[in-house]
Input
Amino acid sequence: MKNTKVKMNKVVMLLTLSDVFTWGAFVVISALSGIYLSDKLGSNTVQFVGIGTAIYFIARGIFQIPIGNLTDKLKKDHDEILILAIGVILMGFPYLLYPLITQAWQYFALQFVFGFGVSLNVVNWRKLFALNIREGMEGKEYAMYDCILSVSTAVISVILGIVANINDKYFDMVMISSGITIMLASVWVLLIKKISNRQSK
Output
């Protein structure tokens, strides 16, 4: 009898795990950042967060096109994997410095670094995911990715929310641990290189 069991798509799973570590943690700390920064930046925090968000999206937007053009010129996926890993590290690094913020410009600078990191992330993550997703299973693999990411984000939200609510010291710990968690996602990305039969190779 023919074995009809479908093997797990290892590349898609590693990309999913990298997003759980990056975007799962980011969704939570982005929701908490306004509260966190209010004690550091004073009464104009809402305005500063609005400006910082704009800086993030501008940096994210303007760097994606040259990054996309660069990776399209590269024949193999080794460079995409490396650039994605660097982007993940740059996304997590600003949160290690959040407890040191005392002025708005510092927050703006960290938002710029985060935006640049995201531009390296999203272009290469989407490209690798699209190249490695299996024909005829696109819906299932996208759905599994989103299900895992959504459930993981829900769990992370509860845990970080409870810890951050204890006191300001623990709030600092949440920011730093979230930054480290995001940076660790680069490990999942680099493991893709060990999968010899990946479609993007």
Observations:
- The mean pLDDT is 87.
- Residues 81 and 189 are 6 Å apart (CA to CA).
- The first helix runs from residue 10 to 41.
- The chain is about 80% helix and 0% strand.
